[in-house]
Amino acid sequence: MSKTLLELAYDKKKDWINIVKSFGCNPSSAEDIVQEMFIQLHHEIDEILNDMYWYDRKVFELCASGKSVASLSRETNISYYSLYNTYTNAKKHIKEKL
Question: What would the mean pLDDT of 54-66 be, rounded to a whole number?
């Protein structure tokens, strides 16, 4: 199953904490700062998704949650290439906005 954007960022939590500590913060403050970063990131991703056209958002959410483009195409009778392009463009849009 594919990981969400937040899960991918969370995998690097220790690295983020070490970066914050390198600026002179104590470990407790570093953890608080990183936690605030995750909360802010979560809100920004939600805002970006909410601003997207419903079809693009739904295709992105389905594919990002682990459903393959091929299986989604078979289940919906929507062209594979249409779904692939929608998913790719949605990812690109989110990366540009972040």
Answer: 90
